[in-house]
Design goal:
The structure is a single chain. The chain is an alpha/beta fold and 340 residues long. 42% of the residues lie in helices and 15% in strands. The protein is built from 12 helices and 12 strands. Strands 2-1-3-4-5-11 form a 6-stranded parallel beta sheet, with helices on both faces. A 4-stranded parallel beta sheet has the order 7-6-8-9, sandwiched between helices. The protein has a two-stranded antiparallel ribbon with strand order 10-12. The longest helix is centred in the last third of the chain and has 17 residues. It is elongated. The chain starts with 7 loop residues before the first helix and ends in a 7-residue tail after the last strand. InterPro entries: HTH_LacI (IPR000843), LacI/GalR-like_sensor (IPR046335), Lambda_DNA-bd_dom_sf (IPR010982), Peripla_BP_I (IPR028082). It comes from Belliella calami.
Length: 340
Amino acid sequence: MNKKRTTLKDLAKELGLAASTISRALDDHPGISQETKEKVLNKAEELGFTRNSIASSFRKNKTLTIGVIVPRIDIHFHSLVISGIEEYAYKAGYNVTIFQSRDSIKRESKITKILQNKMSEGVIICLGTETNSYEHFEKLNRMKIPLVFYDRVPTGFEANKIIINDYESAFKATEHLIEVGCKRIAHIGGSQSTGIFKARFEGYKAALVKHDFPMEKNLVHFTKDLSYEEGALVAKKLLALKSRPDGIFCSNDYTAVSAIQVFQKNMVKIPQEIAIVGFSNYPISKIIEPHLTTVNDRAFEMGMAAARLLIRQIEEEEDIIQTEIVTIKTELLIRESSTK
């Protein structure tokens, strides 16, 4: 015979407390003393009490679920962001549902239609590279569903955003190459229709201007996806130049790693002949030899900040926060690929 499930009423009877007091103690409510909370938690553990989260959600008219839309789960940056979101959400009592847009605006729009059915209390989004209009997010706004965008964020659209200073980070990375003695610095960039990669290119240019370096068009190459293969293709083009660059700033680590490998296969020494800097601090940056100098974009902290801001909106009964922008501070991790 199955053992009967312990209920809130059972806990209340055992402790001589009201069921509402038990519930608030389990929720860590500030109005309940620490002594009472400990008594309730100890008795709950003793009797094997577990919360019926589904029933609790219905009573509160809340799903306690956050929707997260990412371009690609297999990108290390987004995996770390998701980990940060889940870490904060779990501690706050929320579940997380992940959706993958694959950088498709069509797919992204379909996902928002699913989320419109009140499946989620709020949504955290990183825009896909195809996204150039925001009608699908405007519908969520009209429905008063809290939104937080991270990394790739919309322009001209009122929303909460978690970002890094891509311009400043790129400027520092390029200036580092100048400080170690590079005279001709190339750039492997991402699509200029995407704000973060445009900002990184602008930071690169600003560093050249500050130090009176000319920007040579044949040293600047933009890619579609900043893939390993695209990085290798650009590296081969730079290798074929009569006057090769002696430094390269890459908009991500994949292209930087592929460039290192192309040059090494062609007997070009890193960093003695060409110093290389990447962006994002992927695990491969510490595996490649020489280890890659890169920008740590603190993806995990970005996820934590996004979840914190979203849950604050969900739980505050007042108007939804519409325009808060949080900037996560980055750092340049100097390693062997640039230390001439």
